[in-house]
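Model: You mentioned two targets. I'll fold them one after the other.
Researcher: Yes, keep them separate.
Model: Target one:
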Amino acid sequence: MGRTVVVAEKPSVGRDIARVLGCSQRGQGCLMNQEWVVTWAVGHLVTLVEPDELDERYKRWQFDTLPILPEDIPLKVIRESRDQYKIVSELINAADTDKVICATDAGREGELIFRYIYTKARCRKPFDRLWISSMTDEAIQEGFRSIQPGAKYDGLYRSAQCRSQADWLVGMNASRAFTLKYDTLLSVGRVQTPTLAILVKRRREIEEFKPEEFATVTADFGDYKGVWFSEKLEPDTHIPRIDTAKDIAAEVKGKTGTVRTAETVRKKDPPPQLYDLTSLQRDANRLLGFTADKTLKTAQSLYETRKAITYPRTDSRYLPPDMIPRVVQTMKLLPDPYRTLVPGALPDGKLPVSKRTIDETKVTDHHAIIPTAQRVNPESFTEDERQLYDMITRRMLAAFYPWCEYDATKVITEVPGEQAAHLFRTNGRVVIINGWRDIAPLGNPPKAKSASRKKSAEEEDVALPPLKPGDTRSVKKADVKEDKTKPPAQHNDASLLSAMEHAGRDIEDEELARQMKGMGIGTPATRASIIERLIKVGYVVRKGKNLLATDKGVQLIAIMPQELASPEMTGRWELALDQITDGKQDAGKFMDSIRKFSTFLVNYARTNRANVQFPDDDRRRKRRQTLVARGTPVEGCICPVCKTGSVLENERSFFCSGSTGGCRFTLWKDCLTRGGGPELTAKLLQLVLANQVVRGSTGVITIDDRQIAFFPHGSDAATSRRALIYEKK
């Protein structure tokens, strides 16, 4: 009888599965017993080839070879992990292997990791899919009991494959095209570029912001206060002229005010929803100061190593109905600090169920993040793990607590003026039932300091005296507060994640905005890495908690077409990828649209005349200095572009000695050969530069300060071979 090979995504996950399956015998890169073999990847073992691995001519970055649009992009084994790939490949193809189980992370990227290995290894063994949402022994056992045929997830794989190939096509073509155009290494991507555009837009809003002075007037009626307002202003409490505010204060001081209206309404605040990854990252940034990447890594550790929470890379904030008993069990097994809070979430021992928490129609690949139903000891966690576990646990409890109820009172007091009466508004709030607000954070995590969160006098949660229309009060004093309008706040991880998640809100097309509701830039699992990538390539810097677009980032967006910089296109693609998963869109048509878009980007870069000069970076400067130092002068040849430098030669090309000063003249020796022309030599180049036109046995070569061209005898311009030596802006 043969064995079943289980392929996990990481060694730690593989060891957990092996323990549950009783695989105690160690092998090379695997654990086994008579029935099972558990092996693992180390993240991606297989990826798409680089362009120069498709064709040697792609080694040299030049417009002549763009766009690169292969019908199929082959796979290759990643060099750093090839030893583990060999182990996995041999195991899944072994003669005594009857079946394979995909046990990579239950999501789009996990599916891609396994399928790429399976495809590259040319495996033909049948395979099933293990789909679990936590790494507890019980969850793993349940997953194996409800194992699914691998074919059930073919749509997910097609979606993952399309995402992978789309990013390759857009990234490779756009990065090469814009790098060539602007002679500086530029990283352009389907997802990272519109994310950068959000930060660039905010930087411009702040730079262009012009503060305006305003004032507010607060009247003290003795036992309550009111803020002056006017229905003609926006915001209605801001008085544009300081002198006007002072006049109002002087007019009302000592006058008798009369209560015009006094209304008290019982209101309710619903408990917060459970966490998905993005909302967890936002709150961890706001409350704990964690970056999005740190939150994801910490949550992944709580999931994989500590077995303390369910699968974190989820985009759902809901639970399916069959999770109700497990949530009850989880609450009963919570660590000691939370025991006193459990009764409020389990009145009479039963879990309160509502559509805000339990809704199967809103559960995607995975349900919301909650603690697992096993005993854990937070004291053994790292400080970061403990704080994040506390947030997740308290959020689960709060989600099932009663609503917070309060009496909201709104009072409008009228004070006579010289020309017209002045109105003052007072808001009061008295909490009747604390409800979910009893779930206070453990300890004292730092609170976000935001101007928008500072309440004015009219918004304070205070109990007001019993007031009714007609009551009178004397204005004891009236204070004028001078202020200025403030620019938008800089983005931080929390606000940027929110902007990425809800990117479709800014789209003017109402129908598209409706379609994109819930769709944004990237996915919960990738947004943190996108932010870190932007920092790595120098488009964004982190300053304290804030994320700021750099000059290079601003310049990149300035040369990008709106189609790529706007979230609209990315949102359309994310929507399409979801539809491919569900079988509602054809993968081939999607990839055709990506190829057309890649062609558009290359043409846009080639013809774009944006006057943007990127700063010279050290890498490029050193490369040019080395190039010039090693170049051999071509006697009597002056650069046709700058007219001052001399032409130098190396093994593969001719170039200008002034390249360290910014001259872009480059002429590859084989630039005419694919059109039937000769390979350029120093002697031939001397003739061409001296005469501008050279006739030979096979055709005619011409040159100017922009391009060199070869015309075979008997041909026309359409069949000529041209190579740019410098593209003017």
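Model: Target two:
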Amino acid sequence: MDNRILECVPNFSEGSDPEGIGKITAAIQSVDGVRLLGVDSGKATNRTVVTFVGHPDAVVEAAFRAIRQASTVIDMTRHRGEHPRLGATDVCPLVPVSGITMEETVGYARQLGKRVGGELHIPVYLYGHAALKEERRNLSNIRSGEYEGLKAKLADPAWAPDFGEAVFNPLSGATVIGARDFLIAYNINLNTRSVKKANAVAFDVREQGRVKTEMGKPVLDGSGNPQRVPGSLREVKAIGWYIEEYGMAQVSMNLTNLEVTPLHVAFEETARKAAERGLRVTGSELVGMIPLRCLVEAGKYFLKKQHQSAGASEAELVRMAVRSLGLDQLTPFDPSRKVIEYALASAGSPDLTRLSLRDFCDELASESPAPGGGSAAALLAALGASLGTMVANLSAGRKGWEDRLEEFSCWAEKGQNLKDQLLALIQQDTDAFRQILRAKSLPREHQEQRILREQAIQSGTEASILVPLQVMQLASRCFELVEFMATRGNPHAVSDAGVAALCTRAAIQGAFFNVQINAATIRDQPKAAAWISQATTLVREAETFEKRVLAQVNQRINQP
């Protein structure tokens, strides 16, 4: 099965015509296998950023149709906007998301570029990892002079397009297509209207920095080129601009390597540099979508800065990041639309973990065989991990234990991670059982059909063993957390640690029942025996653990 996922984030030079933008997005959605994740328009920039994902072949087809549609609804001779641009489809990057290498992504970018240049007669430049010339790797080099300077640029043999003819297309301009790593377009709000001051802050932080001057003149190096004073943030591009719609200036950034400069680091450093110039950062704005991990990391950073435990739930970490970064200052920030993983999940099939507690119990109590005991066992394990995490957080916040904040915060983070993994298994257990049911409904009139049906049943049965086995393995990893909290955690929450131990033990025993019943029907009995042996060991360890922890809990509860 081909599970490759490619993302495309085209930027169109239109931000105020809903009908035209709608035609472009409709062209994208006309391709099967593509999911539209976001449409972000700005009137002042007169620009729309669209995000969609899917199988690489489908994404490339959708990108071509979008570029073709943009060439019919956008007239660059009339375009005005704050953002630099070269054409109707200004830039069209392809970004590897899952199961696809950068090398493969480059191939798709060049394939798209060749088709746009050949069929649509739009000059195409390749940038980023797809660039054919080193000087074209940087997008700003290609876009210098913008649309207004494009005619002269095309007349220069050094700037002949990579695809298409070197002929100026006044209506569509040129398009830049490339392959790049994940990039975040991020604007930081300042309490000023001055573009000059915003630019000063941008030059302070961006990697390129500013030109070094003396007596108001550039300082040149031995080759006659201007020397530069580098900024404080690596892998960051930035400029200052004024947005009339908001009545404020912003530092507009592209964060091109999130491992080098994460979102919260860019925000904090910009705030520091702004303060040095007598300015204040009032909030920020995300253009397009963002990976979940960026907000989770930011949430943890700001919690630690406040001397609180970073072992909060994912939802709370996201809320903390949104509040601390001021992402909702200008417009409401909806994580379900702005976070890639949430947008994908909401567009997919229903998830049991998103049901209310009552709805989940009603579903469990229905005549449907799934969800059943396996999903309940995974939930019990998640409850055990959650209770252990709660005790860790209560311990981290206990008065007089300030010197142990980091210790308990680390435990809480481990517990949150285990909880999230176990919650995912609630749905996976039900999916595995339904896989068996679907397999049993396959036709079996002919020998070949019977073979395929049996293979599908065996595959589903293996999944129905491996998922509860994983529940047992993850639950056993909760032992250390729960026991530490029972023996050394906040004494006022020791009863909660006891309940956590009971949940963990019950989850392991319950999941073991599922391993046993499904292992009995698998054809590869040696493999099944190995899984049973592994699971049996985990059950015995759980029994020992439960006795030890409950004894400690009873001792601490009954202490005078």
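Researcher: Noted. Anything on target two?
Model: The CA atoms of residues 84 and 146 lie 6 Å apart.
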